[in-house]
Amino acid sequence: MAAERPLPAALEAALQARDWAGLIARCTAWLQATPADHEVRFLRGVARLEQRQPVAALEDLRPVAQAAPAVAAHWAQLARAAALAQQMGEATAAAHRVLALAEASAQDLDTAGVVLSRAQDHAGAVRAFQAATTRGSDQAARFFNLASALKFCGRLEEAAQAYERCLQLDPRHWKVYPLLVALRSEDRGVSASAALRERLAALDAGDPEAHLHLQMALARRHEQRGDHRAAFAAVQAAKSALRRVQPYDPGADQALLTAALNWRPQPGRSGETLAPVFIVGLPRSGTTLLERMLSRHPALGAGAERMHFPMTLHRLGQLGGDRLVSAALIERAGRLDPQAVGSAYRAACLAETGGAERFIDKLPLNTWLAGPILEALPQARVIALRRHPLDSCLGQFRQIFGLRFSDYRYSSDLLDCGRYWLAHERLLAHWQAVLPAGRFVCLDYEALVEDAPTQLRRLLAFCDLDWQPDCLAFADNPAPVASASAVQVRGALNREGIGRWRAYRPDLDGLIGLLRQAGVETPEAG
Fold it and tell me: Is the pLDDT of residue 236 over 90?
């Protein structure tokens, strides 16, 4: 905040103590006497943000930004509040106002970059982060943000260089190591196998995050040289470290499955006319590949990994918690007005799509919400990807998922991945039974890879779209990719992802036995 005068002592004390509730109360009392004090109103807006009150924060930050439009901090905090309130059009516009101001600080620019990343404007995020790294003192986190945005935009060499700069500034920025290994296949430098083992040997056993990322980086180095037994052991060690600090609650996922299986369409309820194409399925099941293909169609707006639908349900249903999708969310969705849900979702999405009403919404967890989605958006289409169970489970086990939500905690154990896959199969069977066939369809990843023209023709017809050969040229798609497949999907279509489990077969006996007990045979595994 660019203060032009000392703050009142009571406000300064609350600010220094980070007593956000107290600060809000003191600012409110102050503003009752001096309502035109924009500095104090800005302070209250920031405090409301810290208290996770973005809608209330917007009431303070909008007039402040308009009253003093040359102050970058005002626009940065307005962008942050609008993003948290799912007002992505306003958030993006405010973030670009920060970029336009020469006096914007590194912190303001970094905030704007984070907002633009969340709004899927990764090119804008690159500009913001690049500017942030040139102003003020070097901070490793800013180079990490820059590297991530560059990777999403396909600028992989620049991304690797930014990751390396991040580690130069802070070698303990652990999450960089596996990301850098994925971009640097040469076993050298800070991400070399020997360097990773040396750092692991020096670690305190009480630092599970460091163990997680360093072991996953080492696993990828083992894979690159074909030592899959060592790779599996490293992944096992990494995930064991994660589970010690983030235990998995299988009861929560069982409750989620029960709630979804109990969901039924309610006659007489009407929703919004918007017609997006939802791509869903388990992580690492080919959802990004399909999104890259379909988004080449001129009638579909650019795809993105959007959380708008579950977040709309959270907001309208007044739910919180550390899960993006839960049993409570599905149950609450059944009590919400589908028209209101559809309208709120429309408002959140159209600000990102430039008003295009046909676009792709790719979020794996939306599989659990296919019923509520088609009730709120009856003209939508939902395409669910499926994959061979061994490849699917192994792919999730080998992946580090974001820790913001707890939805993927099952992935820290291979057998729990198998149980989740089985639950997901039951879910898909349920949706196929209760949802209109013209609105929900399943697709096998292997079929897409083996015969992409046939499968794409089928899917485009399902979406009421004409055939476009450009959909096969997905590698030429210039749109950013903000998923774990950001590197892989920029190459040509190949079969490398099919049967990857075979290299790990000696370590899969437990998973194969679990699937067999559930009636899922994998005869090719012996």
Answer: yes
Greatest Cα pair distance in the chain: 79
**Rounded to whole angstroms, how far apart are CA atoms 494 and 497?**
8
What is the rounded CA–CA span in Å between residue 246 and residue 249?
Answer: 9
- Note the residue count of the chain: 526
| ∠ Cα 354 355 358 (to 5°) | 105
Q: Pick from 2, 82, 81: which is nearest to 38 by CA? A: 2
Strand ordering across the sheet containing 440-444: 301-304, 359-362, 277-281, 381-386, 440-444
- Spell 217-243 as b/e; 16+ CB within 10 A means b: bbbbbbbbeeebebbbbbbbbbbebbb
User: What average pLDDT does range 498-520 have in this prediction?
Assistant: 95
For residue 351, CA distances in Å to 56, 114, 295, 356 come to 21, 17, 18, 9
Cα–Cα dist 76/284, whole Å: 34
The residue type of 113 is G
Which helix (H) or strand (E) is 255 found in, with range? helix 250-262
* pLDDT value at residue 5: 60
Per-residue DSSP letter, 399? -
User: What are the Cα distances from residue 68, in Å, to 21, 62, 77, 197, 262?
Assistant: 25, 10, 13, 53, 53
Q: 362: which strand partners? A: 279
User: What Cα–Cα distance (Å) separates residue 100 from each residue in 39, 97, 118, 150, 285?
Assistant: 22, 5, 19, 20, 40
Residue-wise pLDDT for 330-354, tens only, equals 999 999 999 999 999 998 888 777 7
Residue 233 in tokens: 């052991």
- Tokens describing residue 296: 């080449």
| Burial 293-330, CB ≥16 within 10 A → b, else e | bbbbbeebbbbbbbbbbbbbbbbbbebeeebbbbbbbb
